[in-house]
């Protein structure tokens, strides 16, 4: 697997430094930086490890970064590490969306949704949506997800599984195009509404916007 560099990017070294060598992981809150290094050193030479902490209490948020010397080592760590770490490539430090990384896997944050960040709460049925988010279309428990890039089953499942109640994620491939299409179903319409609200237009991976729409599932949408 090769990672291509965009022509619009800066030098190859800049891209390598910012986008291809640093991974973002979900970890137990008891982990120290040494624990994190110990778990991920088997995949390559680590430049540094850091744990995201609460600025007030100094307690770990259960999220961290691991920076490798080579992109191949970061890719190996993402592929080979335990799935519970939910490892992905981290956003470049110089992008304003770094807050996305901080909240990406945190189900316990309660801040108001803004921009392109994810802030999921445990019970989407009781979440308050902003006025402009009120759904005017026929809702259901099933969603279609369309992308100009093909999906990887495990990655898309991990993304939509951030909203409680995911029942299945079915990635479908069109042999004639390189676009991505998937069907997502939740146990409740409330979860599906929340997933659509948070993920329609979301950039995953960065630069690739997702289109999320409701699909008829045979249920009474008036509920």
From TrEMBL:
The keyword Transcription regulation does not apply. Residues 21-95 form the RRM domain. GO terms for molecular function: RNA binding. This is RBM45 protein. PROSITE patterns: RRM. SUPFAM superfamilies: RNA-binding domain, RBD (SSF54928). It comes from Probosciger aterrimus. Gene3D superfamilies: 3.30.70.330. CDD domains: RRM2_RBM45, RRM3_RBM45. It comes from the Eukaryota. Keywords: RNA-binding.
